[in-house]
Amino acid sequence: MSHETDTRRPGDVGPGFMDAAEVSVREGIARYVIGFVLASALTAASFAVLDTSLIWGPGIPVALVVLAIAQIGVHLVFFLHITTAPDNTNNVLALAFGVLIVALVIAGSLWIMAHLNDNLMPMQQMMQMQR
Amino acid sequence: MSTTDAFAGRDPYRIGHGRDWVSTGAGRGYVYATGHGEGGPASKRVIVGYGFWIFLLSDIVMFSAFFAAHAVLQTATAGGPSGRELFNWWSIAIQTACLLASSFTCGLSAVATEARSQIWTQVGLLVTGLLGLAFLVLEGRDFAGMVMQGAGPQRSAFLSPLFAVVGLHGLHVSAGLLWLGTMMAQVFVKGFRADILRRLVCFNLFWHALDIIWVALFTIVYLIGEGR
Lengths: 131, 228
Description:
CATH architecture of the largest domain in chain B: Up-down Bundle
Order of helices and strands of chain B: EEHHHHHH
CATH topology of the largest domain in chain B: Four Helix Bundle (Hemerythrin (Met), subunit A)
Structural class of chain A: mainly alpha
Largest interface: A-B, 61 and 68 residues
Structural class of chain B: mainly alpha
Largest sheet of chain B: 2 strands, antiparallel
Low-confidence stretches of chain B: 1-8
Mean pLDDT of chain B: 84
Radius of gyration of chain B: 22 Å
Strand content of chain A: under 5%
Shape of chain B: elongated
Number of helices of chain B: 6
Oligomer: heterodimer
CATH class of the largest domain in chain B: Mainly Alpha
Number of strands of chain A: 0
Strand order of the largest sheet of chain B: 1-2
Helix content of chain A: 55-70%
Helix content of chain B: 55-70%
Number of helices of chain A: 4
Number of strands of chain B: 2
Mean pLDDT of chain A: 80
C-alpha cells in the first residue's frame, strides 16, 4: 500500500481536487484567486454592513446571514470544488444531508428554547412562591 | 492497466451513466458502465476524499450544537458584559483576514502539489501555517484579555458557550497546525507518493472547512452579537 504508484486518471476526482481533467497550473491558480477575491469582498461587506446606514437597523442581522451564506457558497465552489458534476453527486448529497441536520439542530433549539422561556415563571414570582 | 481502470472516465463512481469516453494507457474508446457494480469499486483516492468529506460534515454538525447553545444564551449576560463591550473589532477583522488568506495559500499549495513542485508545495504550506499561527496568537490574546477583565467563561451563560464555540474552533486550528507540520515533513521525506497525496487532499479539505466554520462564527458570534 505504501509504495503504490499514483494512478490518477481524468475525471477521477473527489472533493478538493481540480474537478476537470488535467487542469493547468494557470487555471488552478486562477480558480483560487477568483474564490479569494469573492470571499474577501463578501467578508469586507459583512464588516462594512455593521456601520452603514444604508440598511434598516433591524435588517442588519438578515443581511449578515445572507452575506455569510453567500461566502460559504463561494468557499464550497472555489476552494472545496463541490460542483454539480456527475462525479460529485455523492458529495453534494452528503452536503445536503449535513445542511438538513444543522438547520434542524439550530432552528429546533431556538424554537424550543424560546417557547420554554415564554412559559417560564418570571424569577421574581418564583422567589415569592418559595418563601 | 486492468480492466476496471477502463471504467474511470467521467463516471468514477460507476453509477452507470451509459456510454463514456475514456483514454487510458491501454487505448482510447467508449466504455459502458452498467450501474450493476461490474466496474468495480471507485478508486481509493475518490473513496478517501468522500470519507473525509463525511467526517467534516459530522464535525460541522457538532459545531451546530455549539452554535445553537450560543444562539439560545446570547442575551443571558446575567448583568455581566455583553459582546458589544468585550469584542475587539480590529483583532477579529485581522483574524478573519489571516484565516481567509491561509485558506487561499493552502489552495495554492494544492495547485503546486498537482504540478508536483516540492518547493512551492512546501512554501504554500509554510505560509498557511504561519497565517494560522498568527490567527491563534490573536485569538489567544483576545481570550486572555477577556479573562483578565473578569469576563471568563464562568461569568455568565452568554460567555460560557462563547468561549466553548470559539475555543472549539481554535482547538481545530491547533490540531490543523500540528497536522500541517507533519504533512510538510512527510512531503519532504517521502515525496509525492500516492498515500501522501491522499493525506494532502484530506488536509486541504480540513483547512478549507475550518475557514467555512469561521465564516459562520464571525458572522453569528461577533458581527450579529456586536450589532445588537
